[in-house]
Amino acid sequence: MTTQQTRIDILRHGLPEGDGCLRGHTDFAITSTGLIQMATAIADLDSVDVVVTSSLQRCSDFAQQTAKQHSVPLHLLDCWKEMDFGNWDGQLQKTLWQEHNDALTRYWQNPWLETPHGGEALVDFDKRIHQAWLDLVEQHKGKKILLVSHSGVMRQLMRILLEMPENASYLHRIQLPYAARYRVTIFHDKQGKDWPQIQWPTQQQF
């Protein structure tokens, strides 16, 4: 029998500036369209106790507005930033494919073994997101949390929660458009074990 639940709604940022770029750690601004997309995506949220966000402005601008609207605490954290693509970060993907075709091909075929030039290894990104998740649950246990982050973070978190193998397939099989949202409800049993369950908002169900 469960004694406590933690609810975490995870929201991807809406449309940002930098169309066609590999965004990663590059701090592109959110567009007005992106803000509308994000507001629409969480319109059905009944309540929020705390807002946690990537420190990048394409996430944090909306998170700050939402925290103010609900009069709840806001936490801007670097650990929820997108993966760091190093020297590739912020550049047009078209240009990258022209100039680094072989390296990009190797990376996307096996990102667990290849690392972007000067960037973050996927194994380190995975560890970062896993630890960020453990810290989030420990610090806000029993609360209703809105987490605003990035598609790469959301995919990696799915891999961790569903215990997917460390291969490239999940990166291509999970589509998360701008302002995509999913919920994780964690059931905490009396023995101290956590039982996470990924859920989809009602308006996104078939």
From TrEMBL:
One of its GO terms (molecular function) is phosphatase activity. InterPro entries: His_Pase_superF_clade-1 (IPR013078), His_PPase_superfam (IPR029033), PGM_Phosphatase (IPR050275). Coiled coil: none annotated. It comes from the Bacteria. GO terms for cellular component: cytoplasm. Signal peptide: none annotated. This is Alpha-ribazole phosphatase. It comes from Photobacterium profundum (strain SS9). The gene is XAC3185.
